[in-house]
Specification:
This protein is an all-alpha fold. The chain contains 19 helices and no strands. α3 runs antiparallel to α12 and α8 runs parallel beside α12.
Amino acid sequence: MTEIGRKTDTWGSRFGFIMAAVGSSVGLGNFWRFPYTAGENGGGAFIVIYLVCVLLVGLPVLMAEYAMGRKSGMSAIEGVQSLARAQGKTQYWGIATWVGSMTAFFILSFYMVISVWLLSFLLQAPSGRFEGMDAAASGANFEATISNTWGVLGLLALFLSANVLVVGRGVKGGIERAATILMPAFFIMLVVVVGFAVTQGDFGKAAAFIFEPKWGDVGFKTFLAAIGQAFFSIGVGVGLMITYGAYLSKDTDIPRSSFLVAGADTLVALIAGFAIFPIVFLVGLDPAGGPGLFFVSMPVAFGAIPGGSLMATVFFALALFAAFTSSISLMEVGVSWLEERQGVTRMGAAMGVGFVLFMIGAAYVFSLEYLDFVDFMTEGLLLPLGGLLIAIFSGWILSRDMLTSELGEGAIMNIWRFLMRWFVPPFVALILVFGFLDKIQDQYGVSLPGFLTPLLGPNA
């Protein structure tokens, strides 16, 4: 194997980096997961807890990942190993980003299938297919769409080919160029859809569902949901932000950029509910739809209002843009590492990853039960585990001097160092243990010891 060196490709501009980083964070979870989770876990009370989790956990981990990426100038796995060696520690600390990279791959493996469903619905929307649909007809349409095996496989090949093309062209010529086009278009479409939903839908009920504080609904599960949403939405714990950090120029202010990325992601999550729930409440549909809200409830909602076909087209294009910018970011984690291997070109690495993903995606298409299992393993175990290992490594294994050149000296560094040593690891460890137990209970109906009931709720 040849000597592995620093990345030579860099972001072409600060704007391009911010657009790519925000694009990697903003995804489907911002649309259906955050608003529904907020509404069911205390509304405004959940939002307060979520913002605290972003500020005290998500943001410090994001800063750490960017700093480690730029300091090493390598892919997530090689970068952490090189930093460990530089500190005289074992390179086996690379397990932190092995876990993260594996998590990124698993998330992408089911994310792309859902993205293909979005693409299929985007193709259906302009024809007026949703007009006059009731819940039963919409459910049947969804089942028919995902059961069209060869059609889904064809769209999967198309979607993955687009990912391979963008990632294979490199950071500046591929990912950054795509992000600088797609993300401004995304924000314009978001404003259009939100404006339509607020003016045409039931704004009052939507606002009450999402923002009205319900402190009586707050429990330990609220914190589980908040930190899980923060990690999943911002994109930390999967090696992605370390990878992006490797392409940062030295004049980029990491703390400031981290605030911008986390803030933009949070803002999109907060306003995304108003692209969905005013219309849902207007036509009297159940807001507790989760993923089904996209593919069953929303077609019914758009089919029942004037101009619904046009808005449905914009809505599914909006969601697809968000999914695509996230998927190219997740693919970059593996491609960046493979590119550092001897004899592997970037395009070759992208094609190899794309082929493996297509084969896994085909297995999902034929047996959707795998989707539930992979979602359970990533969100319930691997994602918080990756975040915990990164927090321990950056807070306890790396010296203060190692990252001072990246984060600066002074109050920000002092606060970051304190949080990463004394707050983030124990908090995430607690969430990891009880979150995994909660997932086992919810997914598989396993009865847990009685002493856990006060923590995990009455259904434990």
